[in-house]
Amino acid sequence: MTRLRAIFWPEDLADLSPVDQAPEVMLPPPEPSLGGTAGQEGRQDLPGNLPERNILYPGPGGITSLENLIAAWRWAAGPIGRGAPLLVAGLDAGGGRQLERLARNAHVEDSVRPLVGLTPAGLAAAIRRSSALLHLGAVAP
Fold first, then answer.
1. Tens digit of pLDDT for each residue in 4-23?
2. Using omega within 30 degrees of 0 as the cis cutoff, is the peptide bond preceding 60 cis?
3. Structural contact between residues 32 and 120, judged by C-beta atoms closer than 8 angstroms
4. Buried-state track 6-30, b at ≥16 Cβ within 10 A, e below 16
């Protein structure tokens, strides 16, 4: 935090108390599109056919991260996976195929769905519509 020069904070959230006297930069809330329209370079907004209840994993999407994700999801897939499937963002087409293969091998393919090539607005919409976010990494101090 000693090198912090500014804090970017969405304007629709509560005020942030000053941290190390850094200036606040307020950002307008994103305006996500839920239509599923294709964007530039194969990127898309959030598909409109997502389950109402879901758990979102926003990334990272490397093979080791995906293997750890599926290993962690195996214990939860039975009790909650059918009612709230796991949506995995931050993937390109190859990452989506890897995720599908890993889920199939772990027998959780019915409760895992890749969100390939989301635009920033699509990711913002996915976060807003998710019931929970799944974060497997260590939380920074």
1. 555 555 555 555 554 444 55
2. yes
3. no
4. eeeeeeeeeeeeeeeeeeeeeeeeb
Helix (H, G, I), strand (E, B) or coil at 24: strand
Mean pLDDT within 88-108: 94
Spatial distance between the Cα atoms of 7 and 74, rounded to a whole number of angstroms: 37
Q: Which residues lie across from 87 on neighbouring strands?
A: 56, 113
Closest residue by Cα to residue 80 from 108, 61, 57: 108
Q: What gap in Å lies between CA 115 and CA 122, rounded to an integer? A: 9
What DSSP line would sit under 73-95, residue for residue? Answer: HHHHIIIIITTS-EEEEEE-HHH
| pLDDT tens sequence across 10-57 | 555 555 554 444 555 555 555 544 444 444 445 556 666 778 889 999
pTM: 0.66
- The DSSP bridge partners found for residue 114 are 88
Per DSSP, what are the bridge partners of residue 25? 8
